[in-house]
Specification:
Layout (H helix, E strand, L loop, with lengths): L1 H6 L6 E2 L6 H5 L32 H14 L4 E2 L4 E6 L4 E5 L2 E5 L2 E3 L6 E2 L13 E3 L15 E4 L3 H12 L4 E5 L8 E2 L2 E2 H7 L13 H5 L17 H7 L2 E4 L1 E5 L2 E4 L3 H25 L24 E3 L7 E4 L3 E2 L18 E2 L2 E2 L4 E3 L16 H16 L5 E3 L1
Parallel strand pairs: 1-2, 6-21, 8-17, 9-10, 9-17, 10-13
Antiparallel strand pairs: 3-4, 4-5, 5-22, 7-18, 11-12, 14-15, 15-16, 19-20
The structure holds flavin-adenine dinucleotide.
């Protein structure tokens, strides 16, 4: 957004509570690599120029990439500046920070979609003898108590942490709810390449049938690794991770799992087949069938005949519960009436219901790729158009 505003000579400032790329510096586990290939982090006027376009960045490499971009576009960043309130004023908005206040005519809310780890309310019934943890606090398996771990949630974060913790020698049980199965590669190309090329990631928010559902879909079961591994549920059970259904309840020192595991897996297999159908159709239409590998389908997810429906904490089998059940934004610092009854910002593709307020970086904000680094550029171009016409070209930010 800063690059787009500069290109339009719109005076602006970026207020950042930490340093540039703060969430990648401080909120991710040690071994994490991006699950999007290097070529796919395209920012306006800035892409990958190294020798490994199909590789996956580590966290230090991701921080370096974003920091270099901030320098390249001379982004006017005020680091170590936490915004504590945004209020309406006579001229527009008044933004309070722990390092002084700002008056502005427009505000772009780009504070991230993943500020807070979502923890199911029933986790409060976990006995005190069991350690609980979220991916925000998790760094590596050395941090965990010895003994078995229950990982709750089987999207990108849950499957990656289940894999890493299992490899550290602990017994891992994975509670599986709704998930989106995806192979790392298909017909010799990365799945992200296919989704990008076939236009799946460019699908617009005003073109999908059910945008509320699309915005709440779990992340793809993907990992970025040197070996380009597919880390689906079959891979995890193959190495010895035990699958159970969704976490359904915790009472009297026992945890209950839903009986929906088989259905959830069948549904994910079905959706994967649909995605591969779309890819195959696109490949044929675009004359790629001779260039890429043959079309094929993956083994259905294998589920044991009677997965356990409960576990007694007293058995000692589980010593830690790691809730990988998603993230949500933190809007506690907003003093403007833009939240709906569910605490979500009311907006139309990032144009917030209050004039001069814009939103960035949310799942399916304007396109399916909106929550990826790669989606920020197109969204910023669209929203800066709107913002520029709102401002009518006048000066937008002054410090007081
Ligand atoms: C575990 C995980 C893995 C991911 N993997 C990928 C991936 O492989 N590829 C990909 O493209 N995307 C990935 N994403 C999504 C990724 O987070 C987004 O693509 C990208 O970070 C969005 O950038 P952003 O600037 O909108 O949000 P963020 O990167 O979250 O940046 C928001 C910034 O706002 C600051 N901030 C928040 N509140 C305040 C405040 N009150 N005052 C001042 N500053 C504040 C934060 O410090 C932060 O620096 C992943 C996300 C998670 C959680």
């Amino acid at each position: 957004m800063s690059q787009c505003l500069t290109a339009r000579s719109i005076d602006h400032v970026l207020l950042e509570r930490g340093e540039v790329a703060n969430s990648w510096r401080t909120e991710r586990w040690d071994s994490l690599r991006l699950l999007t290939p290097n070529w796919q982090s395209r920012l306006p006027g800035f892409g990958y120029e190294g020798t490994d376009p199909d590789g996956f960045r580590t966290m230090p490499e991701t921080v370096d990439f974003i920091t270099r971009y901030a320098h390249a576009i001379a982004a006017p960043v005020e680091a170590q500046t936490t915004v504590t309130s945004v209020r309406a004023s006579t001229e527009g908005y008044s933004v309070a920070t722990d390092r002084g206040d700002w008056d502005c005519r427009a505000v772009v809310l780009a504070a991230g979609a993943c500020n807070i780890a979502v923890v199911p309310s029933l986790a409060s019934a976990v006995p005190s003898s069991i350690a609980t943890l979220t991916p925000k606090a998790y760094r590596n398996p050395d941090q965990l108590e010895p003994g078995g771990v229950l990982v709750v949630g089987a999207s990108a974060t849950g499957i990656q942490l289940a894999d890493e913790i299992h490899r550290s020698g602990r017994r891992v049980t994975l509670a599986v709810g709704e998930h989106v199965r995806a192979p790392r590669t298909y017909r010799g190309r990365d799945i992200q390449w296919w989704m990008d090329a076939a236009g799946v990631l460019d699908e617009r928010y005003d073109e999908v049938d059910d945008i509320v559902r699309a915005r709440n879909l779990p992340s793809l079961q993907l990992v970025g690794s040197l070996e380009r591994t597919t880390l689906d549920l079959n891979a995890l059970t193959g190495m010895g991770v035990r699958l159970v259904g969704r976490l359904a309840g915790i009472t009297d020192g026992k945890v209950q799992f839903s009986g929906s595991l088989r259905n959830q897996c069948a549904l994910a297999d079905l959706k994967l087949a649909r995605l591969l159908d779309t890819i195959d159709e696109w490949a044929t239409l675009n004359g790629l069938d001779g260039e890429v590998g043959p079309s094929h389908r993956f083994e259905p997810t294998s589920v044991e005949a009677s997965p356990p429906l409960g576990l007694d904490f007293a058995s000692g089998e589980i010593r830690t519960i790691l809730c990988a059940t998603g993230f949500r934004p933190d809007y506690s610092w907003l003093d403007i009436p833009i939240l709906d009854r569910k605490g979500q910002i009311r907006h139309d593709g990032g144009v917030v219901a209050l004039p001069g307020i814009y939103l960035m970086g949310m799942p399916f904000l304007r396109r399916r790729k909106s929550s990826l680094i790669d989606g920020a550029g197109d969204d910023a171009r669209d929203l800066s158009d709107h913002l520029a016409s709102f401002l009518g070209g006048r000066v937008s930010a002054t410090s007081r």
